[in-house]
Amino acid sequence: MDVHPRPALGGIPEVTEYQVRQIARGAGIVVQAIGGPNLALARDGISAGLARRGVSAPEVTITVVDQLDRLPSTGKVARFIAQAV
């Protein structure tokens, strides 16, 4: 599995939207979903992809939320949010 979350989350029909926030050793992913999807395989796959790319002990969380943050100027979901340095 690749590091990009789309292949991992795209196979889960309950997931309607996602947003990825970069963290020091991985990603904090939030998703909008219908029902209670099983996100463990997606989390494990993304974590494994990060490890293959050299991230030591990657941290990946996936949390279901009611709403994702949207860009005020366009109303679109900010799909990836880089870690502030």
Tally of strands: 4
Please state the overall shape, judged from the principal axes of the Cα atoms: globular
Taken in chain order, the helices and strands follow as HEEHEE
Given the helix and strand composition, which structural class is it?
Answer: alpha/beta
Oligomer: single chain
Total count of helical runs of at least 4 residues = 2
How much helix is in the residues? 10-25%
Distance between the termini: 28 Å
Give a structural overview.
There is one protein chain. By secondary structure, this protein is of the alpha/beta class. The protein has helices at 5-10, 40-52; strands at residues 15-23, 26-33, 59-64, 80-81. Strands 3-2-1-4 form a four-stranded mixed β-sheet. It is globular. The protein starts with a helix and ends with a strand.
Quickly list its features.
85 residues; alpha/beta; 22% helix
What does the secondary structure layout of this molecule look like, with pairings?
Layout: H1 5-10, E1 15-23, E2 26-33, H2 40-52, E3 59-64, E4 80-81
Parallel strand pairs: 1-4, 2-3
Antiparallel strand pairs: 1-2
Structure, briefly:
The chain contains 2 helices and 4 strands. The protein has 85 residues and is of the alpha/beta class.
